[in-house]
Amino acid sequence: MSKLEHLNSWHSDWSQLKAVVYGLGVTGFSVADTLAELGATVLVISDKAERNSLDVLDVLGVSHLVGFPKNDIEKAFREFQADVVITSPGIKPDSELLIFATNSNIPIWTDIDLAWRVRDKSGKSSQWVCITGTNGKTTVTQLVEQMLLSAGIKAVSCGNIGVPILDVVRDPAEFEVLVVELSSFQLHYLNEIKPLVSAVLNIADDHLDWHGSFDSYASTKGKIYNNTSVCCVYNVADALTSELMHNAVNCEEAQAVGFTVNTPAPNEIGWVEDLLVDRAFIDDPSVAEELATLDDLKHLALVSPHLMSNIAAASAISRAVGVQPAEIAQALRGFQLDAHRIELVLEKDGVQWVDDSKATNPHAAAAALATFDSVIWVVGGLLKGVDVSPLVQRYAKKIKAAIVIGLDRAPVLAALMNYAADSEVIEIDVPSELVMNEVVLRAKAIAVSGDTVLLAPAAASMDQFNNYADRGQAFVQAITKEVM
Predict the structure, then answer these.
(1) Cα separation of 334 and 330, whole Å?
(2) CA distance 471 to 362
(3) Domains of the chain: which residue ranges?
(4) Is 14-109 assigned to CATH 3.40.50.300?
(5) Could you tell me the CA-to-CA distances from 311 to 23, 109, 287 in Å, in that order?
(6) For 78, what's the count of Cα atoms within 13 Å in the CB-facing half-sphere?
(7) What are the helix (H) ranges across 151-238?
(8) Crossing angle (nearest 10°) for helices 137-150 and 325-333
């Protein structure tokens, strides 16, 4: 039996383990901190790091190599003789250090693998609910957390969202259920976990530059279903999610439950007009049990079909954990979406100004474009190897005008020329700090009552902004300055 097989509990003897932590962002630091607490011998390797993180590692007695030449790092790595490498999930698998580890038969983990092994710190192991998808996973994760809390279950969202999962595991609050959002990067490296409930919300082109192909990306997402014990949740409208579920291993005993924005069939949760209903977790599937109504969402400025789909998914996951209908309705009445997710910023003179900066890929932008009838579309950024043409072709009739921003403008402009020739196209080529002011001024000049000025870029933001939130905030600030 290998050294790692013995390490399946917080209370195992970790003192003989030698671990390389690769990357020192928020995730990498939480890994190093946890391993130090467990008593393992740790070497941190990173291209860069915050000074305060290094200061803490020094206090903890954790060795680190940050910004060293490649040859020095390779020499130190070989001499350290690691039992495991725990990598930050954003690091590509073709990294030389990870290739060397693979060729040397050194296992590669992420923080998720470590957290699964040490989830019993308080004495009782937490249950895990695991959620992934191209879009909507953060909203669904937050919804599930809210629904579980409303049922009196000590739950917390973590993973690819908010607090690092290892910080949650070490929290003295002793959570009963971890609602774990998992990215495709985390799933790529993931070894074996055993979720109580798992869900793939949807699959569409994204991060193809990282994964190499759509098939690789999709199969990576599907790993989340493996070893699920109680319930696998899939999207009725996305056949690939069902296919991934059926191809998963060791989940034969789990109930398969679909979610939909339409009338649900047996073993599904969905919407009948303004009612959210359950035909999966009831004794008689020939009838439907009401879970909530659209009136429970009246405090939200916009309720898009995408949000209704997310609510159905979250309800399916929560019902599988044991949440009752009244508790789901209660959670929805208190739920608030995060900023930059199909968020109505302003409605003035019949024109809606909507911030969906979180739409960092075409699939997410489609959810926003489907919501409105006449759109002045702010689009562009870093496309991450994804073709935007199918999106433009599908929604061409809704696109009154397109305001194109970002580094990868050429493919967007070509798609608009080929598939939306009747749409006005405005190209913005100004310094980054002026982009959104120019966008808003140009949109204001052509918007009339009934139009929606929609920031749904279908692209990542780091070419001109710090992140999608920075991009959305710049849009909001420009609206405040130029329109209000």
Answers:
(1) 7
(2) 17
(3) 14-109, 115-333, 343-482
(4) no
(5) 35, 32, 20
(6) 8
(7) 165-169, 184-189, 208-211, 214-222
(8) 120
Retrieve residue 90's tokens: 């954003």
CA dihedral sign of residues 208, 212, 214, 219: negative
Predicted confidence at residue 1, as pLDDT, reads 45
In degrees to the nearest 10, what's the CA dihedral of 318, 321, 325, 329? -30
Burial class for 289, CB neighbours closer than 10 Å (0-12, 13-18, 19+):
middle
pLDDT digits (tens, 9 = 90+) for 110-162: 999 999 999 999 888 999 999 999 888 999 999 999 999 999 999 999 998 87
Burial status of residue 5 (CB atoms within 10 A of its CB: 0-12, 13-18, 19 or more):
exposed
CA distances from 232 to 45, 256, 361 (A): 37, 5, 25
d(CA 276, CA 274): 7
- Give CA separation, 247 vs 233, 244, 251, 316, 451, in Å: 14, 5, 10, 21, 44
d(CA 444, CA 442) in angstroms, rounded, equals 6
Percent of the chain exceeding pLDDT 70 equals: 98
Asked whether 447 and 377 are in contact (CB, 8 A), the reply is no
The domain made up of 343-482 is a member of CATH 1.10.3720.10: no
Strand order in the sheet with 399-404: 343-348, 351-355, 452-455, 375-379, 399-404, 424-427
In whole angstroms, what is the distance from residue 280 CA to residue 289 CA?
9
- Superfamily in which the 115-333 domain is placed by CATH: Mur-like, catalytic domain (3.40.1190.10)
pLDDT in tens, 1-26: 477 989 999 999 999 999 999 999 99
Q: Do domains 14-109 and 343-482 have the same CATH topology?
A: no
Supply 344's token pair: 């109505």
Tally of CA atoms within 13 A in the half-sphere of 124 that contains its CB: 8
Return phi, psi of residue 245, to 5°. Answer: -65, -45
> Which residues, other chains included, contact 437 with Cβ-Cβ below 8 Å and sequence gap of 6+?
478, 481, 482
Q: How many CB atoms lie under 10 A from the CB of residue 482?
A: 15
Q: Please state, in angstroms and rounded to a whole number, the distance separating the CA atoms of residues 130 and 419.
A: 38
Q: Are 106 and 98 in contact (CB under 8 A)?
A: no
Helix (H) / strand (E) containing 108: strand 108-109
Rounded CA gap, 145 and 124, in Å? Answer: 20
User: What pLDDT does residue 367 have?
Assistant: 87
CA 340 from chain centre, in angstroms, equals: 14
pLDDT band at 166 (very low <50, low <70, confident <90, very high): very high
Q: What angle do CA 239, 93, 87 make, to 5 degrees?
A: 105
SS3 state of residue 406: coil
CA distance 364 to 308: 14
